[in-house]
C-alpha cells in the first residue's frame, strides 16, 4: 500500500491520517459486513469513511474485539467515546453514530500491545447493543449520503475548504507540508470533507456532528465554519509565535553584539567606560529622584552602555547624565529661624536699609510659624553702589542658605536661561540650573543682578523666559531644554536688583515685589566709611598694624569735594587712593600722624573735583535751579532762559527729551494766558524770542519734574526778577496752574543737601516722602509745599 504514515495511540489522537491513493476504496471489492458488528470505542477522535488511521489498542476488551474481527471478516464498528476520561465505557458512554472500518493490518508489539491500521468504510447507526461481554456487539443500520448531482454550490464549498485547509497547513508547523500536496490531489468531494474533518483540531462533539450529518452540502457548510475558526486560531498562534521569536532573536542579537563590542573594547585597551557607568550608578543610588528623573536616567545609562566612548554622541549622553547626578534633587539646606541672630547679621553687614531688613525679618517670621512658604521674588531698585548685591549675601548668611549670584547684564539669548537643546554642538543647561548645580542646594538665595539690563534680539527675549522663573505659581515646574525635565525652583529665594525700574518689562515687573533703595545721606556715608570701607581698605593695603584715624570732618570733606554719587563706590576708591599714599610713606619709613588731615587728603587726591560755590553765587534773572533724578542718584540742574529781539519764537537746547520740551511749552502757555496777573506786557510774547537752555548738553535729559523750574526761569526772564539764591525746586505743572507730585524725592533732597541748597519747593503731595527721610539727614533744609504755580513764583522770585 502506497501511503503516507504518522501514527498515534487510541488515547492520543493528534495525528495525520494515512491516505490511500485510491479514494474511498474505489476499485476494491465490496465489503462483507456481518449482521452483528463488534464495536471499538475510541477516545478523543472520530473516524470518517475513507480515512485510514493507525491505532494502538490497549484495553483488554478492545484487544479481544480486534483479534476476533481480524480472524473473521476484518470488519469492526468504530464509535467515539462521549467522555474520554472514562476508562471502562458503558453503553451510555458511546455515541450512537460511528463508522464501519476494515482492519487493514494488525501488528503485535514487543511490549504486548497491539497496533492496528484501520480504514473507515461506511457510516452506521447503532440499533441496539446485543452483548457487552467480552466486548460490545451491536445491530446496526447503514446511513446513506444525501447528495445532489451537479451541485455547483457544493463545488464552491469544496474549493473554499481546500483553500482554507491549505492556509491552515501553511500556518501549522506540526502538520507536514506533504499534506498540502495530498489535499490538492483529492478529487472526491465526500472524501475531501471526511479527510479535512478528520484532521480538525475541533472538539469531539463538533466532529461527531459532522459525522452524523447526512446531507453532504450541510456537512460542508458546517466544516467551513469550523475551518474558519481554526484558521483564526492558527493565525493568532502564528502571530504570537513570530513575535516571541522576533523578541528572542532581537535579544540574542543584542547579546551577541554586546559580546562582540566587549571583545573589541578589550582589544582596543580595556573597558574604559565601564568604570564611569558603575560610578554613575553608585551615585544614582544616593539620589532622591522624582519618578520621571529616575526613568530618564535609567534610559540614558542603558544608551550609554551600548555606546563606545569614541563615538560623538557618547559625550552628549554622558554630560547630560552627569548634570542629572550633580543637580540637588530634593536636597535642601535647613533654614535658620533665629530672628535676633538674623537681625544682627543684617545690621553688621549693612548700615541703614531699615525697610529691607524689616521685610526679610517678616519673611523669616512667616517661615518660622508656618514651616513652609512659597519664596517671594524681591527686587531691590536703587542707584549703583548702595549695596543691593551684597545685601543678598547678607540675607543668605542670616537665614543659613547657600548664596548664588547670576549676572543678567547684557544677556541677550533666551537659551542662557532655559538651556540649549542637546542636538546642538556645545549645548549646556541654562544658567539657572548651572548655578544650582554649583551650589548643590535646591533652596539657595539667588541674586539676579542687573535685571533691568537684559537685552533681546533675534535669538529670543530672555526677559520673557524669566517670567516662568520668577512666578511662584509656575517655577515649581521649570522646564530646561537641556535637562528635558521639569525642575522645582519654588524653594529658591530669588532677589533681583535693578537701577531703573522702568527698563523692566511690565509683565516681569508684575511678578516682582519691588523695594526701593534710595541713596545714602552724608551722615550715612560717614558711618559706612567708618564701619566697613576704611577697615576693608586698611587690610587691603597692609595697614592694619599702623595706627591712624579718620575724623568725621575729613570723611565728609572726601565725600563733598571728591564724590558725587548716591552710593559709596567712588568714596571707596578715594579712600583706597588715600590708603595707597599712606602705604607709600610707611614703606619709605616716613612717620605718620595719628590722624589723617585735610592736607593729607589733598596731597593724596589732589584739588577738589566738586564745589558748591556755583550754587552760592547770585544768578541773573532767567536762571533757576531744579532737582533731577538719574539712575545714579539725584542731581542739581540749572535751567537758563534769555530774551532776544524777534517774533515770539521758543528755542530749546541742552539735549532735552520730548516730555521736558513739552514742560517748557506748557510753562510759556501758562505765562501768556496769565500775563496780566503776573504784570507782564502781553506784547513782549510777540516781539521777543525766548531761548531756554539746560547746561551739560552732552547728557540726555527728560521727565516732567522740571516743569516748575522752567516756569520760574521763564517768569524771571520776562519780569526781570531774580530767583532767590540757595533755592531749588521740583514738580510737574499743568495748564490750569497746578503743581503735581514727582518721584525720586529722597535722592533729589540728598543731592540738594550735598550741593549746599537751603530751601526746596515741591508739591504738597510729596510731603509724605519727606517724612520717610531721617530728620537728622535733612537738618538745615527748609521745605515749601505748594499746590499752585502762583505759590511757586511768590516763593522763588525776589521782589524788584
Automatic annotation (TrEMBL):
> What's one GO MF term for it?
serine-type endopeptidase activity
- What is this enzyme's EC? 3.4.21.53
Where in the numbering of this chain does the Lon proteolytic domain appear?
618-799
Domain of life from the UniProt record:
Bacteria
Which residues are in coiled coils? 219-246
Q: Which GO terms describe its cellular component?
A: cytoplasm
Classification via CDD domains: RecA-like_Lon
The top EC class is hydrolase
Q: What Gene Ontology terms for biological process does this UniProt record contain? A: cellular response to heat; protein quality control for misfolded or incompletely synthesized proteins
Which keywords accompany this UniProt record? ATP-binding, Coiled coil, Cytoplasm, Hydrolase, Nucleotide-binding, Protease, Serine protease, Stress response
Binding-site list for ATP = 382-389
One Pfam entry for this protein is LON_substr_bdg
Q: Which reaction does it catalyse?
A: Hydrolysis of proteins in presence of ATP
**Which SMART domains has this protein been placed in?**
AAA, LON
The family classification in the record reads: Belongs to the peptidase S16 family.
Subunit annotation:
Homohexamer. Organized in a ring with a central cavity.
Q: What does this protein do?
A: ATP-dependent serine protease that mediates the selective degradation of mutant and abnormal proteins as well as certain short-lived regulatory proteins. Required for cellular homeostasis and for survival from DNA damage and developmental changes induced by stress. Degrades polypeptides processively to yield small peptide fragments that are 5 to 10 amino acids long. Binds to DNA in a double-stranded, site-specific manner.
Provide the protein name: Lon protease
Q: Which gene is the coding source of this polypeptide chain?
A: lon
Amino acid at each position: 500500500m502506497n501511503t503516507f504514515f504518522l501514527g498515534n495511540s487510541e488515547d492520543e489522537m493528534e495525528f495525520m491520517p494515512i491516505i490511500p491513493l485510491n479514494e474511498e476504496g474505489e476499485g476494491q471489492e465490496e465489503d462483507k459486513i456481518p449482521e452483528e458488528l463488534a464495536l471499538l470505542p475510541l477516545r478523543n477522535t472520530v473516524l470518517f469513511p475513507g480515512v485510514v488511521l493507525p491505532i494502538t489498542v490497549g484495553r483488554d476488551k478492545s484487544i479481544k474485539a480486534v483479534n476476533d474481527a481480524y480472524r473473521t471478516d476484518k470488519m469492526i464498528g468504530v464509535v467515539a467515546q462521549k467522555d474520554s476520561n472514562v476508562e471502562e465505557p458503558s453503553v451510555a458512554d458511546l455515541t450512537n453514530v460511528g463508522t464501519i472500518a476494515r482492519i487493514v493490518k494488525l501488528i503485535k508489539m514487543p511490549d504486548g500491545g497491539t497496533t492496528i491500521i484501520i480504514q473507515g468504510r461506511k457510516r452506521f447507526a447503532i440499533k441496539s447493543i446485543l452483548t457487552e461481554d467480552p466486548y460490545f456487539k451491536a445491530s446496526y443500520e447503514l446511513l446513506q449520503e444525501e447528495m445532489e448531482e451537479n451541485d455547483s454550490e457544493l463545488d464552491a464549498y469544496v474549493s473554499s475548504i481546500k483553500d482554507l485547509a491549505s492556509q491552515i497547513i501553511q500556518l501549522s508547523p506540526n502538520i507536514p507540508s506533504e499534506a498540502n500536496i495530498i489535499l490538492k490531489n483529492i478529487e472526491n468531494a465526500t472524501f475531501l470533507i471526511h479527510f479535512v474533518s478528520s484532521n480538525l483540531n475541533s472538539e469531539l462533539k463538533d466532529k461527531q456532528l459532522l459525522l452524523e450529518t447526512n446531507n453532504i452540502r450541510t456537512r460542508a457548510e458546517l466544516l467551513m465554519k469550523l475551518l474558519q475558526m481554526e484558521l483564526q486560531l492558527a493565525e493568532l498562534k502564528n502571530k504570537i509565535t513570530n513575535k516571541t521569536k522576533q523578541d528572542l532573536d532581537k535579544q540574542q542579537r543584542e547579546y551577541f553584539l554586546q559580546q562582540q563590542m566587549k571583545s573589541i573594547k578589550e582589544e582596543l585597551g580595556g573597558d574604559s567606560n565601564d568604570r564611569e557607568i558603575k560610578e554613575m550608578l553608585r551615585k544614582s543610588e544616593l539620589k532622591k529622584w522624582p519618578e520621571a528623573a529616575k526613568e530618564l536616567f535609567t534610559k540614558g545609562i542603558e544608551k550609554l552602555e551600548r555606546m563606545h566612548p569614541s563615538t560623538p554622541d557618547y559625550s552628549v549622553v554622558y554630560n547630560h547624565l552627569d548634570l542629572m547626578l550633580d543637580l540637588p534633587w530634593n536636597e535642601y539646606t535647613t533654614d535658620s529661624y533665629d530672628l535676633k541672630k538674623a537681625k544682627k547679621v543684617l545690621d553688621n553687614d549693612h548700615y541703614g536699609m531699615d525697610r529691607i531688613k524689616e521685610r526679610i525679618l517678616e519673611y523669616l517670621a512667616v517661615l518660622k510659624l508656618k514651616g513652609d512658604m512659597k519664596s517671594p521674588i524681591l527686587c531691590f531698585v536703587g542707584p549703583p553702589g548702595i549695596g543691593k548685591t551684597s545685601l543678598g549675601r547678607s540675607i543668605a548668611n542670616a537665614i543659613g542658605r547657600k548664596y548664588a549670584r547670576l549676572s543678567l547684564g547684557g544677556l541677550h539669548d533666551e537659551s542662557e536661561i532655559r538651556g540649549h537643546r542637546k542636538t546642538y554642538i556645545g549645548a549646556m543647561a541654562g544658567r539657572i540650573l548651572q548655578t544650582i548645580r554649583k551650589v548643590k542646594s535646591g533652596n539657595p538665595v539667588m541674586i539676579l543682578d542687573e535685571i533691568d539690563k537684559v537685552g533681546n534680539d533675534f535669538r529670543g527675549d530672555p526677559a520673557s523666559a524669566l517670567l516662568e522663573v520668577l512666578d511662584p505659581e509656575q517655577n515649581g515646574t521649570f522646564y530646561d531644554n537641556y535637562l528635558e525635565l521639569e525642575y522645582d525652583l519654588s524653594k529658591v529665594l530669588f532677589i533681583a536688583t535693578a537701577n531703573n525700574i522702568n527698563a523692566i518689562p511690565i509683565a516681569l515687573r508684575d511678578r516682582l515685589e519691588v523695594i526701593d533703595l534710595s541713596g545714602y545721606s552724608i551722615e550715612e556715608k560717614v558711618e559706612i566709611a567708618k564701619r566697613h570701607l576704611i577697615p576693608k581698605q586698611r587690610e587691603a593695603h597692609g595697614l592694619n598694624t599702623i595706627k591712624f584715624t579718620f575724623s568725621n570732618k575729613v570723611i565728609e570733606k572726601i565725600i563733598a569735594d571728591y564724590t558725587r554719587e548716591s552710593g559709596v563706590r567712588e568714596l571707596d576708591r578715594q579712600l583706597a587712593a588715600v590708603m595707597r599714599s599712606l602705604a607709600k610713606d610707611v614703606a619709605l619709613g616716613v612717620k605718620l600722624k595719628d590722624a589723617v588731615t585735610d592736607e593729607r587728603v589733598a596731597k593724596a587726591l589732589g584739588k577738589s573735583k566738586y564745589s558748591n560755590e556755583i550754587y552760592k553765587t547770585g544768578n541773573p534773572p532767567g536762571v533757576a535751579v531744579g532737582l533731577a533724578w538719574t539712575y545714579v542718584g539725584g542731581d542739581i540742574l540749572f535751567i537758563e532762559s534769555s530774551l532776544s529781539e524777534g517774533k515770539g519764537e521758543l528755542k530749546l537746547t541742552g539735549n532735552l527729551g520730548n516730555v521736558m520740551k513739552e514742560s517748557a511749552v506748557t510753562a510759556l502757555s501758562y505765562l501768556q494766558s496769565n500775563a496780566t496777573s503776573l504784570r507782564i506786557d502781553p506784547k513782549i510774547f510777540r516781539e521777543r524770542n525766548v531761548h531756554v537752555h539746560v547746561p551739560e548738553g552732552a547728557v540726555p535729559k527728560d521727565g516732567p519734574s522740571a516743569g516748575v523750574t522752567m516756569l520760574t526761569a521763564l517768569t524771571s526772564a520776562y519780569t526781570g526778577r531774580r530767583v532767590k539764591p540757595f533755592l531749588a525746586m521740583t514738580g510737574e505743572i499743568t495748564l490750569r496752574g497746578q503743581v503735581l507730585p514727582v518721584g525720586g524725592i529722597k535722592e533729589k533732597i540728598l543731592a540738594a543737601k550735598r550741593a549746599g541748597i537751603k530751601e526746596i519747593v515741591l508739591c504738597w503731595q510729596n510731603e509724605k516722602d519727606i517724612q520717610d527721610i531721617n530728620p537728622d539727614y535733612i537738618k538745615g533744609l527748609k521745605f515749601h509745599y505748594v499746590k499752585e504755580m502762583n505759590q511757586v513764583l511768590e516763593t522763588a522770585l525776589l521782589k524788584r
